[in-house]
Amino acid sequence: MKAIKKPFRFSYVIIPVVIGLSVVGWLFGKEFNPQIFSDIHFSWRLLGGLLLAFLFMFGRDGGLIARFRYLSENTLSWRKAFNVNMLCEFASAVTPSAVGGSSLIVLFLNKEGINAGRSTALMISCLFLDELFLVIACPLALLFFPFSELFGTITVFSESIKLLFFVVYGVVTIWTILLYLALFHRPEWVKHLLISVFRLPLLRRWKKAIEELTDNLVESSHQISGKPFVFWLKAFGLTCSAWVSRYLVVNALLFAFTTDGSQLVAFVRQLILWVVMTVSPTPGGSGISEYMFQIYYADFFSVSGMALVVAFVWRIITYYMYLIVGVCIIPGWLKKFNF
Predict the structure, then answer these.
(1) Do residues 113 and 80 make contact, with C-beta atoms less than 8 angstroms apart?
(2) Which of 115, 123, 58 is closest to 86 using CA atoms?
């Protein structure tokens, strides 16, 4: 696979940070309430909740790292699997959510010693497993919880979120079906479909890259689709553990900062939030994530503005941390492979 020699720039980090902090600052200025900080007291509950939030985030990364190693059939060492995961998370943090870091998995895996064909198959497998989790989990949430708890009270905001959720969920479901066909049944059909789509004038510039990707997919899909059901069940179990750990970060923070609201409702609302955030146009959902969180979880707090404080802490743990880690490991990784 041909390496794209593009220098690492700190502007990739600065831009999303500026967007996120600007929105947080604007919201604080708009909703500033001195009582917020007087209601935050050091306690074992606060400390325990913050510690749990970090542990759940580490658990989430542990699940994804183990999945990379498992899907590669231990070809990736734990160190290499860690590098690939952190590079993907950094790429997700500095690109719009609709793009994400998944599109670069092939490059990262290839540089860590996995050939182009297997790298493509691993990328499609990871995408498929992640989307499958959402496709299965969302209907369960809708089945067991009323819309008023999932989307909030009937307001313009909640109605807009509801509409956007169902539109995005429909697109994710269609995309998951295409990934399933590409992996297990009709890789050639998916190849022809994607090449036809990328013949459109607006997408033509990526046609050659798509042709290479789909050639690698067809070459490797027969091998990977022949894996036993137990293999995929274990991979899906690792995927579920990673997503559940990510969602539990919010539960831990709510435990630390408030006693209001249902922890179960808080957990399932994460499903709605993450589905909606997949179409965020800003790098890593900067600004939009903070805004969405403080509105979506406002009913868990009795003091106005406290939701924004928790939203900021949530983003430090689930987003800014990856920017810091990325800045630490990417320059060395690029130098190692002569980018």
Answers:
(1) yes
(2) 58
CA-only gyration radius of the chain, Å: 21
Average pLDDT for residues 301-319, to the nearest whole number? Answer: 83
For Cα atoms 160, 140, 131, give the angle at the middle one, nearest 5 degrees: 75
pLDDT of 36 higher than 70:
no
Q: How far apart are CA 115 and CA 22, in angstroms?
A: 42
Residue with tokens 């600004």: 287
User: What is the pTM for the complete model shown?
Assistant: 0.84
- Is the Cα dihedral 326, 329, 333, 334 positive or negative? positive
Residues with Cβ within 8 Å of 32's Cβ and at least 6 positions away in sequence, in order, are 305
DSSP-derived secondary structure for 129-185: HHHHHHHHHHHHHHHHS-HHHHH-SSSHHHHHHHHHHHHHHHHHHHHHHHHHIIIII
CA distance 68 to 123: 10
Helix (H, G, I), strand (E, B) or coil at 283: strand
Provide the β-strand partners of residue 171: none
* 272 within 8 A of 151, measured Cβ to Cβ: yes
Element holding 221 (H helix, E strand): helix 207-225
Burial 231-257 (b: 16+ CB within 10 A, else e): ebeebbebbbbbbbbbbbbbbbbbbbb
Residue whose pair of structure tokens reads 């670069």 in the numeric block: 104
pLDDT single digits (tens) 117-140: 778 788 888 888 999 999 999 999
- Count CB neighbours of 97 within 10 A: 21
pLDDT for residue 3 is more than 60 = no
Distance CA 55, CA 13 (A): 24
Per-residue pLDDT band at 318 (split at 50, 70, 90): confident
Question: Which residue from 224, 235, 242, 216 is spatially nearest to 105, judged by alpha carbons?
Answer: 216
- Cβ-contact 337, 84 below 8 angstroms: no
Q: What are phi and psi of 268, to 5 degrees?
A: -70, -25
